[in-house]
Structures are given as C-alpha cells and as structure tokens.
Specification:
Shape: globular
Strand content: 5-15%
Order of helices and strands: EHEEHHEHHHHHE
Structural class: mainly alpha
Number of strands: 5
Number of domains: 2
Oligomer: single chain
Length: 161
C-alpha cells in the first residue's frame, strides 16, 4: 500500500534535479532520496572504506540500503522536466513585447540558462519567474503522481488526492 505522498516533497526533489543526480521515491513510506550518479556508481562498483571519510562511508551505506528497497520509483529527470521549455513558455506569456523579445533572445544559443537568468534580473521579473517555475514543477509532480496512481497531499495533508 502506498503512503500519502507530500506533493511539496516531490516538487522540492524536482527542483534539485540536474545532470549529476536522480531522485527516488519509496511509495510505501513516501520517503524521497536524491542520489548522485557518482554515489550510485560507487555503490555498484564498490569502494574502499579506508579511502573515504567516515561521513561518506555512512552516507553510501544509507544510500545503498535505500536503493535496495523494493518498488522504488525514479522521479522525472532534469531532461524530462524540460527546463528550457518552461523558460520559453514563461517568455511567451509575457504581455510586454519588449520583455518577451529580451527573454526570447536570451534563450538563443549557448549559455541560454545563464543569459535568461541575467535577463530576468535586469528586467526585475525574477520573482514572477520563480512563481511560474514553481507552478510548472507543481504540475509535473501532480501528473507524475497521478500517472503512478500515488495518493498525495498538498500543504499539510488538507487536500489529499
């Protein structure tokens, strides 16, 4: 039986996604663990405890125990989240032609993420972006939970789905 999953915890895990790690959910407990690909590789291939600091050995042991649980689900990866598309959608929704144009130009070519971030701050709309991005990740998390038939709760258990 699946636990009642915290939507906020799933969104928080999605916000941490990048090319260097993945996040797993234990649907029986609702626990989420973000694991670096480097740690996964060390667990798979083995490691010499004598060469690592105690904290890392302890962390790898806990990670190994978690990953050995049955029925773990891998949360959507950074690739599946399509951050660039979320940024492009945000740009498209801007009512001001100048703002929309600046954001679209920032998204072109290499360094798009950095250029987009600078454009947001130059335009003074970074708070609107963070709200928009948070809402987009919230929708991705909801869709993923519903696709996996997992019950979830929004903000303190009030709105169980």
């Amino acid at each position: 039986m699946a636990a009642l999953i915290s939507l906020r915890a799933v969104v928080d895990a999605l916000e941490m996604q990048n090319d260097q790690c993945g996040a797993y959910l234990d649907p029986r407990t609702g626990e989420i663990l973000t694991v670096t690909h480097e740690d996964e590789k060390m667990i798979e291939e083995g490691y010499d405890e004598a060469e690592l600091p105690r904290w890392q050995v302890d962390s790898l042991k806990q990670t190994r125990e978690f990953l050995q649980r049955a029925d773990l689900l891998l949360l959507p990866s950074a690739f599946e989240i399509h951050e660039w598309q979320i940024m492009n959608d945000f740009a498209e929704e801007q009512k001001n032609d100048r703002t929309r144009g600046i954001l679209h130009r920032a998204l072109q070519g290499s360094g798009a993420f950095r250029h987009f971030k600078h454009a947001l701050y130059d335009l003074g709309i970074e708070k609107a972006w963070f709200r928009y991005r948070s809402h987009a990740l919230d929708e991705i998390a909801r869709e993923w939970l519903e696709h996996n038939h997992l019950p979830y709760t929004v903000a303190g258990g009030a709105d169980a789905q």
